[in-house]
Amino acid sequence: MNWFHNTSIFITMPVFVGGFVIVSCAVVLVLRPLVQRMVVDAKEWDHALGHVIETFGVIFGILLALVAVSVYENFAEARKDSLEEAALVGALFRGTTGLPDETGIPMRATIQEFVHTVIEQDFPAQRRGDLPETSAAQIDEFEHLLHEFEPQPVQQEAEFLQLLATFDDLIEARRARIDATTLELPVPFWVVIWVGAAVNAVLVALIHMKNVRLHLLAAGLLALFIGFVMFVTTDMDHPYAGSISVGPGPFERVLEQTIE
């Protein structure tokens, strides 16, 4: 799916949703002659098919909604992790201002380099689906500087303990952001959804309607809505890729407002 996430939404959305509509209308045109030959009692046919469509619609609708909500929750959690990490970076930078210059200046330079690396290398790698590793060098460097510092006055010791706690939280937030790179819906769920969409198109095509234009309109509108829902769900399935994705905005704001 890399081609899907790396292509503009102005191309993927019309192709994806339009494909749904075209395929659904094609299924109607293919099955209409068969339905016309099979139907003996139109009233009985529509009554029986109505029960099937109603039952299937409830099941498929609930499944599609649950999948969409699950994907959105993953996306929202990834965005929350990114915001939290950026906030901790800003807090860590401000916390070093109370340290002596010989310690605080190298720490702040390392943090600044870390933020630039996250923006310029981590997020592009995550957009490609790769686990970022470059920013680990700045984390290791900051940890080394932190452990070399020996606080003397009571005030320095308190600031040092606060820095340690903030740094530990930053490590956890960074790990959560990186782990979300490979976050996606399990393949069996997508198989069920695509099968459900296909079954839905077939059931709509089996409706006995004399007016072919009205039949195509009904099938097309339903396919249009399902296509949009599945497009948004597919686009958000990888939190750092696609048109709807988590970007480096929080880190850029921290860089502009706090660090530089």
Strand proportion: under 5%
Helix-strand makeup class? mainly alpha
- Biggest sheet character: none
SSE order in H/E notation? HHHHHHHHH
Q: Mean pLDDT score, rounded?
A: 89
How many beta-strand elements? Answer: 0
> What's the N-to-C terminus distance?
38 Å
- Report the oligomer: single chain
User: What's the total helix number?
Assistant: 9
Which residue ranges are poorly predicted, with pLDDT under 50 across at least 5 consecutive positions? none
Count structural domains: 1
How would the global form be characterised? rod-shaped
Description:
- This protein has helices at residues 2-6, 9-38, 42-95, 101-127, 136-148, 154-179, 187-205, 212-236, 249-259.
- It has nine helices and no strands.
- The longest helix is centred in the first third of the chain and has 54 residues, at 42-95.
- Helix 2 (9-38) packs antiparallel against helix 8 (212-236), helix 3 (42-95) packs antiparallel against helix 6 and helix 3 packs antiparallel against helix 7.
- The chain has one domain (2-241).
- The protein has 260 residues and is mainly α.
- The model has no long low-confidence stretch (mean pLDDT 89).
- The radius of gyration is 27 Å and the shape is rod-shaped.
- 81% of the residues lie in helices and 0% in strands.
Question: What layout of secondary structure does this protein have?
Answer:
Layout: H1 2-6, H2 9-38, H3 42-95, H4 101-127, H5 136-148, H6 154-179, H7 187-205, H8 212-236, H9 249-259
